[in-house]
């Protein structure tokens, strides 16, 4: 009986997670777009084109951290989701450990940036620079361009 | 009769062989010109180093920051002709190029010829570097001499016959090794001229962004129109103002993307361009602006890759 219950529970969990992620490609594209949007709110400040604003910076970093926390590799990049309208590189599935490490670094840097809660331009630029290095580093290996 | 034919065949064969030998003879720079090049300035040479992107292929793949100055090679460049392994160009006397003189370096960079007199494969972008000022090459060499010695040799290139015969590259050079500028831009401003020099010369942008023909020669009529990625499964973007290209980007946005890697809609540049951004983030703002001005001035072309490359997979 216990075993059946456990099995049912497991099936329910699997079912809900599958149902919630019927389209992992669309989900991860949405996540990346949200990331880009959050980055975009902070770039003018980082470049010195807009005055430093602690509230905008805090909101932007928080948004990226929320996205980072949603980055569940197993859910967003399941086996087989290299097919279709995706620019994810096959290298993700060839080197899952390396990809997971890159995601983990992004998560750690996003959490650190929020924790640092920068209150002046220099402090913000340091956090933002370190955080956004993750974008290029991951896209260098794990994304391909399809025009 | 048969004897006569055989003799004729032999003579023709010999003439053909001789012609092949003469036509594929490696050509070197004029030593007197090289000797006249002034002592290089290593500080200026560092900028040339980043413009030229040496670290992208000759640094360890994925290396960051100071590690990118350790030029032991190792990157594998895939191509339709086989796989190339970027060699060690650190100052190590045995494994690198520490034993070279400036004339050896200049001939490698601008004529694609090794100190032993062999052709280099054009995976090493000397077909672009030939357009560099010799003074810039001298500055670059002065900087390279300050870089660390790193031991270790890269594996040999993996190329099937006949591409493994270096002498055949003499034929490739006859067909495709053009020393002059790619474009003629009427009434170009000084900024555009500087951008042209950087893009067509040290930046060697056309090596990836211009499609190639079956012999691996660049299709200059589709200059910078984008190409199918030799890495497989993707494309290298069209950076002209043509359909599919970057017409919507302002010059400022192009210059900015080369510095921080962000596109106008805050996507980040990936693939091998990520490493190019790491290089170009070291280059002065004026040079990034010059590249942008040039890209805004060049002829617009539609995408240089076929549409199915987009839908592939």
What labels would you give this structure?
heterodimer; A: mainly alpha; 7 helices; about 75% helix; B: about 325 residues; mainly alpha; two-stranded antiparallel ribbon; 4 strands; about 40% helix; globular; disordered C terminus
Describe this structure in words.
The complex is a heterodimer of chains A (147) and B (313). Chain A contains 7 helices and no strands. Chain A is 74% helix and 0% strand. In chain A, helix 2 (24-46) runs antiparallel to helix 3, helix 2 runs antiparallel to helix 7 and helix 3 runs antiparallel to helix 6 (96-116). Mean pLDDT of chain A is 89; it is low at 12-19. In chain B, 41% of the residues lie in helices and 4% in strands. A two-stranded antiparallel ribbon of chain B has the order 1-2. In chain B, helix 3 (42-52) crosses helix 7 and helix 11 (251-260) crosses helix 13 (285-297). The longest helix of chain B has 22 residues, at 2-23. The A-B interface holds A 32, 36-37, 39-40, 43, 47, 82-84, 86-87, 89-90, 132, 135-141, 143-147 and B 62, 64, 226, 229, 231, 233-238, 244, 256, 260-262, 265-272, 274-275, 277-278, 303, 305, 309-313.
Structure in a nutshell:
The complex is a heterodimer of chains A (147) and B (313). Helix content of chain A is 74%, strand content 0%. By secondary structure, chain A is mostly helical.
Rg for CA atoms of chain A: 18 Å
Summing up helix and strand content along with how strands pair, one would put the structural category of chain B as mainly alpha
Assembly category: heterodimer
**Kindly, what is the distance between the CA atoms of the first and last residues of chain A, rounded to a whole number of angstroms?**
55 Å
Provide the β-strand percentage band of chain A. under 5%
Average of pLDDT of chain A: 89
What's the arrangement of strands in the largest beta sheet of chain B? Answer: 1-2
What does the largest sheet of chain B look like?
2 strands, antiparallel
**Which ranges of chain A are low-confidence, i.e. pLDDT below 50, for 5 or more consecutive residues?**
12-19
| First-residue to last-residue Cα separation of chain B | 61 Å
Largest interface: A-B, 27 and 35 residues
């Amino acid at each position: 009986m216990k075993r059946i219950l456990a099995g049912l529970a497991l099936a329910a969990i699997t079912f809900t997670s599958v149902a919630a992620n019927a389209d992992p490609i669309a989900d991860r594209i949405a996540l990346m777009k949200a990331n880009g949007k959050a980055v975009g709110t902070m770039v003018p400040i980082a470049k010195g084109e807009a005055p430093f604003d602690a509230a905008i910076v805090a909101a932007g970093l928080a948004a990226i951290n929320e996205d980072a926390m949603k980055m569940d590799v197993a859910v967003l990049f399941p086996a087989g989701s290299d097919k279709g309208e995706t620019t994810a590189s096959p290298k993700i599935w060839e080197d899952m450990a390396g990809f997971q490490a890159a995601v983990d670094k992004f998560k750690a840097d996003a959490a650190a940036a929020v924790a640092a809660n920068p209150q002046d331009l220099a402090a913000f630029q340091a956090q933002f620079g370190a955080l956004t290095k993750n974008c290029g580093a991951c896209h260098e290996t794990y994304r391909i361009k399809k025009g | 009769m048969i004897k006569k034919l055989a003799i004729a065949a032999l003579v023709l064969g010999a003439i053909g062989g001789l012609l092949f030998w003469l036509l594929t003879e490696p050509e070197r720079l004029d030593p007197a010109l090289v000797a006249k090049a002034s002592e290089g300035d290593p500080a200026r040479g560092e900028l040339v180093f980043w413009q030229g992107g040496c670290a992208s292929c000759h640094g360890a793949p994925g290396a960051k920051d100071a590690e990118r100055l350790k030029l032991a090679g190792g990157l594998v460049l895939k191509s339709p002709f086989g796989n190339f392994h970027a060699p060690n160009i650190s100052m190590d006397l045995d494994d690198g190029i520490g034993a070279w003189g400036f004339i050896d370096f200049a001939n490698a960079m601008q004529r694609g010829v090794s100190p032993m007199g062999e052709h280099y494969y054009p995976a090493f972008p000397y077909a672009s570097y030939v357009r560099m000022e010799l003074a810039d090459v001298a500055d670059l060499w002065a900087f390279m001499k300050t870089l660390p010695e790193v031991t270790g040799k890269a594996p040999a290139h993996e190329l099937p016959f006949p591409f493994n015969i270096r002498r055949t590259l003499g034929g490739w050079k006859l067909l495709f090794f053009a020393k002059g500028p790619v474009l003629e831009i009427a009434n170009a401003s000084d900024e555009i001229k500087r951008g042209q020099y950087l893009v067509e010369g040290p930046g060697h942008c056309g090596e990836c962004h211009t499609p190639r023909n079956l012999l691996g020669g660049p299709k200059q009529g589709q200059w910078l129109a984008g190409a199918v990625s030799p890495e497989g499964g993707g494309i290298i973007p069209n950076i002209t103002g043509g359909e599919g290209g970057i017409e919507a980007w302002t010059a400022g946005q192009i210059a900015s993307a080369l510095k921080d890697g962000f596109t106008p809609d805050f996507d980040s540049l990936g693939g091998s361009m990520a490493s190019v951004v790491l290089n170009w983030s070291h280059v002065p703002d004026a040079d990034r602006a010059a590249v942008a001005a040039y890209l805004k001035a060049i002829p617009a072309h539609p995408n240089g890759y076929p549409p199915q490359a987009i839908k592939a997979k």
